[in-house]
Amino acid sequence: MSHANTLGQAAQTSAPLRLDALETPCLILDADRMERNIARLRDRLAPLGVALRPHLKTAKSVEVARHVMSSPQGPATVSTLKEAEFFAAAGVRDIIYAVGITPWKLAKVIELRRQGVDLAVVLDTVEQAEAVAAASREAGIAIPVLIEIDCDGHRSGVVPDDAARLVAIGRALIDGGELRGVLTHAGGSYGARGVQALQQAAEQERKSVVDAAAILRGAGLPCPVVSLGSTPTAHHALDLTGVTEVRAGVFVFFDLVMAGIGICQVEDIAISVLATVIGHQREKGWILVDAGWMAMSQDRGTAKQAVNQGYGVVCDIAGHAYPDLIMADANQEHGIITLRPGSQGTLPDLAIGDRLRILPNHACATGAQHRQYNVVHGESDVVTGQWQRFGGW
After folding, report:
1. Which of 47, 63, 112, 359 is the most core-located residue (most Cβ within 10 A)?
2. With the C-alpha atoms ordered 290, 293, 299, 300, is the resulting torsion angle positive or negative?
3. What are the residue boundaries of the D-serine dehydratase-like domain, all occurrences included (predicted)?
4. β-pair partners for 76
5. Cβ(272)–Cβ(317) under 8 Å?
């Protein structure tokens, strides 16, 4: 083989992968936007004197986790024990499993702790506390626990002024287990609108866990960790006195729901689904693409907001949103692109085979449909990495 041919083959194999060469639909991650989103929250929390314990349920990726955690060992929050195992295998050692524990999952918790992972669990009943204490005694390993506090009636947890229940849980737990603190999540903040309402939600969240911690300490029980967090409140808290850490997850990527609440701009959203134009129904004003609800998810979170974004906002291949263009409907593998109702705009002139990027309603749900991120930077179409993500329980 000639030297010239060798050089030609080398040039060919080293040619960069570009967006127009990817099979669609697929998930795109703009790493520049992601880094700005991470820096924004870190800069906001620094003067408030609290640690960031990012929730990795949105990313489900070791590479993304390493960008958002403060060290390769953590701290981190997860929503499944599979996430705990996955990140533990990558070296993460400080993890909260932030979903109410059930007795049958305690064997896996103990196994991970024996591997050197400081895995803490969450609960809100005496029954769970008794199960944790019993499993801890049997294993000879004290499982650390945070008592979940219901700060806004959104989901689970102990209401913060139920002193009798809080103390009963704490006392049941320390008979073998470890009471590490209290934890809450202001899920109700997703329904807040306006800066004042979001600030009030953040203060209500803070006060709930601080008050609960005071009740436990007043009863002679330990409460070193006071943990709270949601992306909306993390960006609007004015005072975090008494809090030790903030948990948030979707801020890494943001999404259209967060934009609708006012936490970010559409231009901040770091993930999108790359799709290809596969047809037109011109009399209906439709452009058809090969990304349906299997690629975008069925999450229609913006349907409850002032601006309904359908299944997602449509952008060109560089990530710039077309005016008033949304995925208005979807079948399993077909997406219907059209102008939003009431728009006076015109459809872009797109040919069969053209590429589009669609911003998601809910980053967690859309991400869950895919198994890797195709990483780009800003307007560049060069794919600089393909980061694996995982799913399941």
Report:
1. 359
2. positive
3. 270-377
4. 95
5. no
Domain boundary assignment for the chain: 18-25+264-388, 55-248
- Which residues have a Cβ under 8 Å from the Cβ of 34 and sit 6 or more positions away? 64, 67, 252, 253, 270
**Tokens 């591997």 -> residue:** 115
Question: What architecture is the 18-25+264-388 domain classified under in CATH?
Answer: Beta Barrel (2.40)
55-248 CATH:
3.20.20.10
The C-alpha atoms of residue 17 and residue 192 are separated, in whole angstroms, by 42
Q: How far is CA 66 from CA 43, 69, 75, 259, 382, in A?
A: 18, 6, 11, 25, 22
Q: Would you state the structure tokens that stand for residue 222, as one six-digit string?
A: 């330990």
pTM of the model: 0.93
**Per-residue model confidence (pLDDT) at position 2:** 44
52 in Cβ contact with 251 (< 8 Å): no
- Sign of torsion over alpha carbons 319, 264, 386, 367: negative
274: CB partners within 8 A, 6+ apart: 19, 22, 24, 25, 26, 27, 28, 291, 317, 355, 356, 357, 374
Expressed in angstroms, the distance from the first to the final Cα of the chain is: 52
